[in-house]
Amino acid sequence: MTVTERFLDYVKHNTQSDPTSGVTPSSHIQYDFAQYLKGKVEAMGLEEITLDDKGYLMATLPANTDKPIPTIGFIAHLDTAPDMSGKDVKPRIVENYDGRDITLNAAEGIVLSPTEFPELLNYAGQDLIVTDGSTLLGADDKAGIAEILTAVEYLQKHPEIKHGKIRIAFNPDEEIGEGAHNFDVELFGCEFAYTMDGGAVGELEFENFNAAGATVTIQGRNVHPGTAKNKMVNSILIAARLIEMLPEKETPAHTEGYEGFYHVVGVEGSVDKSTVSWIIRDFDRENFESRKRKMEEIVAEINREYPGCATLEMKDQYFNMREKIEPVMHVIEIAEKAMRDAGVTPRVQPIRGGTDGAQLSFKGLPCPNIFAGGENFHGRYEYVAIPSMEKAVEVIVNICKEVAGR
């Protein structure tokens, strides 16, 4: 099968993760897809196939040479983002894109336009896969899954390409930050690996945010408004003040590159009780710790004004993998050469987000991130260029060649 055929097949499977379920995988539909893929890798004749009860699928393409070569891995995630429905995805191929607006859904007036998404013009003349405007597409990360399996099949069909033992893994719940939590690094047994979970062609990432989540619960005091003077404590107004006390220009909408931010992601409340949730992000560890202290300071200030009304719960989520990759930079050099050999210019850049590779790197598996080819993830305007997926396949094969050559 071609990478396009695989991708069009996989996006038919709804695999949205659920951040509220409290179980792993967070949605049974992810496990259903893992079982489906297990059948596919069995049919390919792969070995050491395991699927545990939490939805982690692993398999092996055995080495085809006696030469001692490090075992390496390629990883992609099963789930799609909870941000938008992944059910009944109806992908469409736009052949030889002409650089103009693409009508996704005429009835709803949904248009994918280079005016709003100028990156589209980079794909003029290429075949694109788009949505019908009612769901996300699922290139994040079913493109990665399709690319890995297509590369493995290519290596099977070309035994003249010598390679060491290659491990593949597909895991659940990356989109809710839990993809690496139950990943058995020892069972995977690799010296290093790559997640195929990046965006546009050429992306190569080994820096990501340090990340924390913070929730402030505010206990107010509700009194009938007719007799509320000097008695009522409106928790909603306190929540609004908390939000305003953080730097106005340090939000995702005002930052880029290596700039960190505070991002309010949820507000719920009544006069009696409210909660406000943030995510806190920064590449620099000292700045990250400073941001967390800032959150503690504003809650303390509120509690001085309204004694004991606010409770802060703050938890680290993941850390910048750079400190784990820098001692093994040959892992990056291999990927860069593999891209150049495929005619791709490597674009080393920070991930303004997280990746399973970050957590895996801290679990002892160096794991930078490589492009899968998609754009506009997590929404109705998501698309992927077919040549981008084909280049990703070529890069995977080239990595296997380069590791064997070394």
Features:
406 residues, alpha+beta, four-stranded antiparallel beta sheet, 23% strand, globular
Helix content: 25-40%
- Proportion of beta-strand residues: 15-25%
- Helix and strand element order: HHEEEEEEEHEHEEEHEEHEHHEHEEEH
Distance between the termini: 30 Å
Radius of gyration: 23 Å
Discrete helix count: 10
Q: How many beta strands in the DSSP annotation?
A: 18
The low-pLDDT segments are: none
Largest sheet: 8 strands, mixed
Oligomerization state of this entry? Answer: single chain
Fold and architecture overview:
With 406 residues, this protein is an alpha+beta fold. It has helices spanning 3-10, 28-43, 139-157, 185-188, 235-245, 285-305, 322-325, 330-341, 356-362, 386-405; strands at 47-51, 57-61, 72-77, 92-94, 102-105, 110-112, 128-130, 166-171, 192-198, 203-205, 210-219, 261-269, 273-282, 310-318, 347-348, 369-371, 374-375, 383-385. The chain has an eight-stranded mixed beta sheet with strand order 1-2-8-3-9-16-10-15, with helices on one face. It has a four-stranded antiparallel beta sheet with strand order 4-7-18-17. A four-stranded antiparallel beta sheet has the order 12-13-11-14, with helices on one face. A hairpin with a 5-residue loop joins strand 1 and strand 2 (57-61). Helix 3 packs across helix 10 (386-405). The relative contact order is 0.18. The mean pLDDT is 96.
